[in-house]
């Protein structure tokens, strides 16, 4: 029961009357009136009557206390016998707490989304927000102590305890990738930094060295014996562009907690630093400047341009060796340093006696050993002085017929060109809509050298559907023949122009063996756990793709054709690690999941990360291995944990179901008493 005030009028007027009463009594005392005390009692009686004191009686229903129990169900809790330890602790504590009339709010903590790890404090904060703080008597965490969000710990008003799973004999060995770049320049050495670390109660037979197997792009691994506990600097040189997959695997001991952190996969994208291009122009013409501007506009291209401005057949008595302002280093370029170029372009070049046959033979060998040559043919290609009549003719994919068409035509994409990555969907880059006759929406060219295909693939055709752009692989290198020197008309915007920049960009990247432009390729892109397989081919169909999971199991996946030459399929990865994908003779690898899963970085149970959170709340960190603790009731502010026990603080919360308010005295009785006191004061003062 409580005494409360239930004023008959607002409190402000009551306060004003109280001030007036004090002034009135003070005046009476100053005048020496003998009845001042009776007047004061009368005023107080009136004020009490207006304040209306009452007796409040509440009907209360007690509420049970709540104990929060946060249970770690992350992947690291599945190691050893931690699962059974967790189940036993949760069952025993739940029975003990509920037997004391308390409620248990159990919340499970799964693995975080992606590679977030164990978000123990995040889940605790969300669970606490859903419960009234006045009823929470304590919080119990059942975990291995390896959480990844301690900074999100909530403010608690009751004790916090941690029960640690695991064993005192647990130990683990892990592989750490300390430094691994996402990109690396081809043919330049990079250094990866690795470290092998032991945690926990390391046995004597663990050894100070361990075998480390290293595999690149799924090839046969090489094994090295390396020390434990030291930084290992591993020099790597990438030899091909695109994704390079490096797999590291430590030898595993039977007594380790897990082998999930004994392996790591690193994916490094190989990129070219700068492309060295040699452009050899046979004579000045309108398209020469277009070639030069195109190559010079790319900051990643180092261009060497060799132009014959004055043909040697001009009979003016000037020796050939003196036709240039400076002596051009032809021997150095075409014999000694030819292999330093990534691409050689012959633009309307014909044999003039400047480059001996030995130089052309050197270029042929350069292609066969991995180089690339692009021929932009003019009328000279159909003449007797054509470079086709040199050693280059042995590697060119088409032969001239000696005919040159001087008439307008629109280049067209061939049937196989619609599947080839150099020309597929090139119409999308046309500046105009498709014409009524179905031809692409780009301008015409005005010259076409007639050639016949001898090898390779014709991806673009010209007049009478004869080859216009033919591509071929020769040995380790690549060759392209463009049977026209009028590609510059697109660049100049003739009849609307055309996608010259896109065509030549793709062509150059294909010749540089960029993975995205390989005509026969199998790639895998990963987003989360979803894997998308893409098969590019010049064939009209493909077979099933065989996917080999990290555990060695295989499955067959059927690809669907989404456009000519491109087949796609998707599937959900169920495990993490290195996957192998094979279709026919083409095989690739990809990694699913992080290089080192966060949940398995530290696997030995420890309360070190939770100590700064538990200590201020007077809680305890106990090992389940030592026995499941008893539960005791402790007062607020007292130590809440000891050897073999944990404490909870009773909250004594309740809910009010009914309130009864009874006035202490009748207001009329107070007013009558005030009147009597006033009359008494008047009589006393009047009698005097």
CATH superfamily of the largest domain: Class I glutamine amidotransferase (GATase) domain
* CATH C-level of the largest domain: Alpha Beta
Major sheet strand order: 16-15-17-18-24-23-22-20
Please tally the β strands and state the result.
37
Question: Which shape, going by the Cα principal axes?
Answer: elongated
The value of Rg in angstroms is 45 Å
- CATH topology title of the largest domain: Rossmann fold
Beta-strand portion reads: 25-35%
How much helix is in the residues? Answer: 10-25%
CATH architecture classification of the largest domain: 3-Layer(aba) Sandwich
Main sheet properties: 8 strands, mixed
Distance between the termini: 47 Å
- How many domains is the backbone divided into? 5
């Amino acid at each position: 029961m409580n005494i409360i005030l239930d004023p008959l009028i607002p409190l402000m007027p009551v306060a004003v009357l109280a001030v007036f009463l004090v002034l009135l009594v003070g005046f009476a005392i100053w005048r020496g009136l003998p009845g001042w005390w009776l007047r004061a009692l009368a005023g107080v009686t009136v004020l009490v009557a207006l304040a209306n004191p009452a007796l409040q009686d509440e009907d209360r229903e007690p509420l049970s206390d709540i104990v929060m129990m946060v249970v770690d169900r992350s992947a690291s809790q599945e190691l050893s016998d931690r699962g059974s330890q967790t189940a036993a602790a949760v069952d025993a504590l739940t029975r003990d707490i509920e037997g004391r009339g308390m409620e248990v709010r159990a919340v499970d903590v799964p693995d975080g989304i992606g590679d977030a790890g164990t978000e123990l404090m995040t889940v605790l904060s969300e669970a606490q927000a859903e419960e009234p703080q006045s009823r929470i008597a304590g919080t119990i965490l059942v975990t291995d102590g390896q959480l990844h969000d301690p900074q999100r710990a909530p403010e608690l008003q009751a004790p916090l305890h941690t029960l640690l799973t695991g064993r005192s004999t647990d130990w683990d060995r892990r592989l750490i990738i300390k430094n691994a770049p996402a990109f690396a320049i081809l043919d330049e050495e990079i250094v990866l930094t690795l470290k092998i670390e032991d945690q926990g109660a390391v046995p004597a037979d663990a050894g100070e060295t361990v075998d480390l197997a290293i595999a690149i792009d799924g090839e046969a691994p090489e094994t090295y014996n390396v020390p434990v506990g030291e930084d290992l600097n591993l020099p790597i040189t990438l030899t091909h562009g695109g994704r390079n997959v490096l797999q590291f695997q430590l030898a595993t001991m039977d007594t380790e907690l897990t082998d999930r952190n004994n392996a790591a996969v690193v994916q490094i994208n190989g990129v070219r630093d700068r492309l060295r291009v040699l452009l050899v122009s046979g004579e000045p013409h309108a398209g020469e400047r277009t070639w030069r501007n195109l190559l010079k506009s790319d900051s990643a291209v180092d261009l060497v341009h060799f132009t014959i401005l004055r043909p040697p057949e001009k009979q003016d008595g000037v020796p050939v060796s003196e036709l240039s302002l400076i002596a051009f280093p032809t021997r150095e370029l075409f014999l000694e340093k030819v292999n330093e170029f990534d691409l050689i372009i012959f633009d309307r070049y014909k044999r003039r006696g400047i480059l001996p046959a030995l130089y052309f033979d050197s270029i042929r060998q350069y292609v066969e050993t991995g180089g690339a040559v692009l021929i932009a043919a003019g009328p000279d290609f159909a003449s007797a002085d054509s470079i086709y009549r040199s050693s280059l003719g042995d590697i060119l994919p088409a032969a001239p017929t000696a005919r040159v068409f001087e008439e307008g035509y629109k280049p067209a994409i061939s049937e196989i060109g619609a599947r080839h990555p150099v020309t597929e969907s090139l119409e999308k880059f046309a500046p105009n809509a498709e014409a009524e006759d179905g031809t692409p929406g780009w301008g015409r060219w005005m010259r076409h050298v007639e050639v016949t295909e001898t090898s390779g693939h014709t991806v673009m055709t010209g007049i009478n559907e004869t080859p216009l752009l033919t591509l071929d692989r020769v040995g380790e290198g690549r060759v392209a023949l463009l049977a026209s020197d009028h590609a510059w008309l697109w660049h100049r915007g003739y009849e609307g122009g055309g996608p010259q920049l896109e065509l030549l960009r793709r062509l150059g990247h294909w010749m540089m063996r960029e993975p995205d432009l390989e005509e026969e390729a199998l790639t895998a892109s990963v987003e989360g756990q979803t894997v998308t397989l893409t098969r590019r081919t010049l064939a009209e169909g493909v077979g099933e793709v065989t996917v080999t999971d990290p555990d060695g199991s295989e499955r067959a996946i059927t690809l669907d054709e989404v456009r000519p030459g491109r087949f796609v399929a998707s599937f959900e990865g169920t495990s993490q690690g290195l996957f192998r994908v094979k279709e026919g003779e083409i095989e690739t690898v990809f990694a699913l999941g992080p290089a080192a899963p966060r949940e398995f970085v530290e696997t030995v149970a420890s309360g070190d990360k939770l100590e700064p959170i538990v200590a201020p709340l007077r809680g305890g960190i106990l090992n389940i291995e030592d026995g499941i603790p008893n539960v005791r009731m402790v007062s607020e502010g007292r130590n809440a944990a000891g050897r073999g026990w944990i404490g909870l603080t009773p909250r004594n919360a309740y809910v009010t179901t009914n309130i009864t308010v009874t006035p202490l005295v009748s207001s009329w009785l107070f007013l009558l008493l005030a009147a009597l006191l006033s009359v008494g004061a008047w009589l006393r003062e009047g009698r005097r």
